[in-house]
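Internal ticket - ligand job 439, manganese (II) ion:
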Amino acid sequence: MKPFIPMSEFADRRRRLMEQMAPDSIAIVAAAPERTRNRDVLHPFRQDSDFQYLTGFGESDAVLALIPGREHGESVLFCKERNPEKELWDGFLAGPEGAIERFGLDDAFPIADIDEILPGMIEGRSRVYYPLGKDQAFDTQVMDWIHIIRSKVRSGAQPPGEFVALEHMLHDLRLYKSANEIKAMARAGEISAQAHCNAMVRARQGGHEYNLEATLIHTFMEHGARSTAYPSIVGGGTNGCILHYIENSAPLAEGDLVLIDAGCELECYASDITRTFPVSGRFSEPQRALYEVVLAAQYAAIDAVRPGNHWNHPHEAALRALTQGLVDLGLINLSLDDALAQEAYRPFFMHRTGHWLGLDVHDVGDYKVGGAWRVLEPGMALTVEPGLYIAPGNTEVNEQWRGIGIRIEDDVVVTKDGCRVLSDGVPKEISEIEALMAS
Ligand code: GLY
Ligand code: MN
Ligand code: MN
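stdout (structure tokens):
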């Protein structure tokens, strides 16, 4: 299948980053390292998101240098050399030639030669942009290259004087999704939505939480999304009140709700969906009442995602609707305004209503600019995920509510006049969920 992000788009991203860099500077970004799982078994490789954004190059042991104005090419990649014997065991390597031909880099060298070549490229540049402090080993490596230059100052070498965190510029670019990125994220949302539908239907057979996790992973893979964007959360009953529950080992009990927070990753783009539904296929009265409160809060928050509103508007809308619902149901015995002022919702809703979404599930980008909440603009992608979690041991509330955990989460992208929901392929209305589960 044709990739969602064409090579020209990666080149365009590098160009846009270089336009913001000082003219006599260099930016350095490293690929993710391979990580050992146990003995000689590695974790599945996942490219570093910044490196992926700028190259689309999926190998480890690679370093990108962006050098504005360099005569022999501004985008330079250091990567593993081709090696037929090694490739026989571990698979295809692009090699420096392939990096140029297939990935559109301007120039490329073997990674084994980086200590000889890169210091010479840094030398004479006054500023180095790199992800300062992100990875200790890489910090040390950059400083080693600087020491190589410093050792040559008596021969006229000029080490750089400024080291600047690259993230601010790069992550601001990543915050605004292109049409192709939105297509990738929409497809990831579609696959994940299908997985949630399949898990709802599978739940009717009972079994354990991991049976539903298996259905999710199976559906992701069947559609070519080989990885989850984060470990799937499948929490039956009171496990739905544990925000990052990933044990997924308990039996599913008739009469309980199950909360599934799961999304696949496609070309490194994340989806992140939560649905909560009854194992039996029918909501009980207390489950229904609380669910309707969360759903109303989610609609109110989604309605607040539009250009001109700021980052906190959807959260404020969700808080108001959740708190109103808790007052109406008697879980909070205060007026709405007093309850909001005293944050009386906190025992039941303790997280924020969303986060940026992109190459990382909790994507990069500042939430505040100059101390003020960031104004939403077209192309920004985020989740909307209010919830209510009534702790099983909360004796301040009527027993019927205890142990119910509900979250409803969708992925949205800000459009010209509102937002588009990327994850609407799985129902969230009670009647639609019950109909699907009865089918
Ligand atoms: N799945 C993690 C989150 O919803 O933020
Ligand atoms: Mn989630
Ligand atoms: Mn989320």
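Auto-summary: DSSP finds 13 helices and 21 strands in the chain. The chain has two domains: 7-174, 177-438.
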